Amino acid sequence: MTGDHHRELLIRWLQGAYALEVALMKALGRQAEHATEFPELHARLNTHKIETERHAGLVEHCLKDLGAEPPNVQAKASGFLGAAQAGFTGFMDNPFIADTLVGSSSEELEIAVYQAISTLAEKLGEEEIVSICSDILEDERSMLAYFNDNLPLIIKSGIENDLLQT
């Protein structure tokens, strides 16, 4: 593979990451609405929405530095999130639980995406992109740790507050 091919691949991956961030901004807002009975989770989701908006801006900056534009995001990543949401609601019809599980799994996906982008950017000598990915990965790992540390408590609280209705 040529360097040009790798550069084009990096652009496509960044465009995919941008589309994912934009879709997640919407999803995080919806998740926060479903979590109003859980002040800590509600606040954490709102904080991560702000982080996600910043991530989208950082990825857009990377794309522009490479001479590319962010994609039209209407269909790309929102299709993934919709499919994930539909899969979860297939066995968990409760929007609060489905949102929480999709939120946790989307952090895993984002971590994998940014690790891949960082690896390719490093191969291409794009140190600023590597640094930006590292910054974003720190936020994503923090949010994933929050979900991992609190998911059982969130579910228990949902049961206690009778929020697990369909």
Entry keywords:
0% strand; 166 residues; 5 helices; mainly alpha; Ferritin; elongated
Report on the structure:
With 166 residues, this protein is mainly α. The protein has a single domain (3-160), classed as Ferritin (Up-down Bundle). 83% of the residues lie in helices and 0% in strands. The protein is built from five helices and no strands. It has helices spanning 3-34, 39-65, 76-91, 95-123, 127-160. The protein is elongated and about 55 Å long. The model has no long low-confidence stretch (mean pLDDT 86). It holds the Pfam family DUF892.
Which class best fits the helix and strand makeup? mainly alpha
Integer tally of domains: 1
Residue share in β-strands = under 5%
CATH homologous superfamily grouping:
Ferritin, core subunit, four-helix bundle
Pfam families: DUF892
InterPro entries: DUF892_YciF-like, Ferritin-like, Ferritin-like_SF, YciF
Task: Give the SSE layout.
Layout lengths: L2 H32 L4 H27 L10 H16 L3 H29 L3 H34 L6
Helix pairs in contact: 1-2, 1-3, 1-4, 2-5, 3-4, 4-5
Task: Provide a quick synopsis of the model.
With 166 residues, the protein is mainly alpha-helical.
